Amino acid sequence: MRALSSLFSTFGLFSSAIIFPINSDAFARETVISSERDSVNLTIYQDPNRFGRSINANWPRGYALISEKRTITIPKGETQIRFEDVSEGMFPESAVVSGLPQGVIEKNRDERLLSPFGLVDAYLKRRVTIKRTNGETGAITEKEAFITAGPTGGVVLESDEGFEALRCTGLPERIIYPKAPEDLSAKPTLSIITQSDREVRATVTLTYLASGFDWQANYIANIDPDAIADGEKKMDLFAWLTVANGGNQSFDNANLMAIAGSPNRENIGRQIRPTGKGLRLQCWPQGRTHQIPLRGNFPPPPPPSVEVSSLIDSLEAAECEECEVIVVTASRLKSLSETLTPVAAIKAEQENLGDLKLYRIPEKVDVKAKGQKQVAMIVQPDAQYRRIFVADVSEFEDGDTFPVEYILRSQNDRESGLGLALPSGHFSVFENSKYGPLLIGEGSLADSAIDEEVELFMSEVPDVRLEIQSAKKSKRRQNYIATLSNALSHPIEAEINIPYILSGRHKNIKEIDGIATWVVTVPANDEAVLKYSVKLERQ
Length: 539
Prior knowledge:
The protein is mainly β and 539 residues long.
């Protein structure tokens, strides 16, 4: 210490040595591991940048607010508490621990996990053992090697024989590590350091934000074509609340909630995911480039199994006289249509949360790792709608005749059988037929508040066609004739957009959202004709 004091004095740091006594108790810190949750609340927020796309199955881009209660025994003195099995997408800066006797001194997130990926990453530039088995002789050989590159994109090993890629030799092989690194955790872990003047049995609450979650609404609408012909346009609307958990941690007996809307959240940058995953090994080329043929000689596919062969034979002999004919009765078909809309055993309950909507599951549910959970969300039978055929004349050229698509339009109010917030999501529309319910359209639905107009865009109908023909032209205007034909057995409503400056007045043209629109009802097996004039720009 005297030599150290002289050295520091030389540089003018201090002139006399100050000796601090070392407290050995500071290094006698106990470790308490908490691996079980007493209860957990899981509140999931949607990915704000999904824009109608499906949930990312590999790693959902939404996030969750997780609140866990855990009971632990805190010994006297300074203690390290390790909260194991937290979500691997945890934002460690958001973690809050309450219920401790004297609060939190220090907080750490263990991001390196015990996994093939994590082991290679931990042993990069270190010595390991490669164990191989000869497929012909069964002989096992072992040799030492260094991991020179990895784990992203492949693992490169260096031995006395040179450089080679892991599992690219054609022989079964694996890496044997001397020991598990001390800084690798078997589960995602948040560790804290706290202090207590006595031993305490405490129930603490751990709350944090985590990525890797998402949710969406999946709508199912069932309509009856017979009701369309009778003028009674109603549909049964059902929606699933679909929750996705992209992490490797399950949340059993969770109080599950979902938030609809767009809460303000600043971009915090890319979140670093823990290294708890498998290796993605790439091998090319296998051998020298001149040894690899331009087109490989792939072996023929294996013959079909006995069951598949029997099935093929039975299909080829489908016209035999002894074949059994199965008749589905009308009552059976009716039951098929009735079972399309699921029966809700439990249903998410909607609550207000400021300007947002909260959907709470009334019972505790399990949200499994790498899985999805669906719970009934909306059950609205007999919702009224209008079936309207829509088109835009600017998409037609002179003399063109095309089928027209239609939309299902409804007003989100109680008079129409709705009157509730409709979160954004995917929808599927089915129509009853003599073969049972058949899919007639799919699409996405934006967030719809109460009293707003709701539109579901469907498919084109070949029996409803629009033809645009040019007529007389002058220096100031161009005349057109639009013919809308309806070959269906019931009348149709149509709205044809004419996004031009029109000349003169037209009886059946209204302005909808600032665009001139031909609003017309075409009787069954009939047509409607509109003559209109478009102003031309002066040359």
